[in-house]
Design brief:
This protein is mostly helical. Helices cover 72% and strands 0% of the residues. Helix 1 runs antiparallel to helix 2.
């Protein structure tokens, strides 16, 4: 890694560290406001602090998005001046490859609870319909819907069943006449709008 890219990586890490520190301070301030009295803080105060927190989180996410590629290729390790003896707990936490034992216990307890609870299993293990059955149901539904409508002509299936059968040719002529009248009316309106005379 050349010096310019390493400088950029250091700058991006420093920016991320600063934004993270700001978020931690804002969160602790926000929690202090929420818990300082028995009565809830005024709504404008809560709203203002929440907006500050949101803007800082947004700023952090933008910084992470901008420096994503350089951060992805950067390997971080402590320098020679790092106080290993004093910061050993921090170092072991940061370099940890497995979850903390508390987290592992919580995960295993949750999985065990899920496996032992039959009500949760029955909800999540509903057998899906086989594909053939699903296609049959879809075909039946399509046939039912198809029967409800008349796909040719100008009358509905219900009108047809009630005996309101209309001569198709007469209906088409009537519709053509209505369209012609509507077109003439529209032409007259547009002519009046253009010239101001009827």
């Amino acid at each position: 890694m050349d010096s310019t890219s390493s400088e950029r990586a250091v700058e991006s890490l420093e920016g991320i560290r600063q934004r993270t520190t700001q978020i931690v301070h804002s969160l602790s301030h926000f929690l202090a406001i929420l818990h300082q009295t028995e009565q809830l803080a005024p709504w404008p105060t809560i709203h203002k602090n929440f907006n500050i927190l949101l803007s800082q989180i947004h700023s952090l996410s933008n910084t992470l998005a901008i420096h994503f590629q350089s951060l992805r290729t950067t390997n971080i390790f402590p320098s020679e001046e790092f106080p290993v003896r004093e910061q050993e707990p921090l170092l072991t936490t940061l370099l940890r490859t497995r979850p903390l034992p508390v987290v592992e216990e919580w995960e295993s307890a949750t999985l065990e609870e899920y496996e032992n609870d039959p009500s949760l299993k029955s909800k999540s293990q509903k057998k899906p319909l086989p594909q053939d059955v699903l296609w049959e149901e879809a075909r039946d539904l399509l046939m039912q819907e198809r029967e409800r409508y008349n796909w040719t002509g100008y009358v509905t299936r219900q009108e047809e069943l009630r005996g309101e059968i209309i001569n198709q040719k007469e209906l088409e002529e009537e519709r053509a006449f209505e369209e012609q009248n509507a077109q003439q009316t529209l032409t007259k309106i547009l002519g009046f709008m253009k010239s101001g005379r009827g």
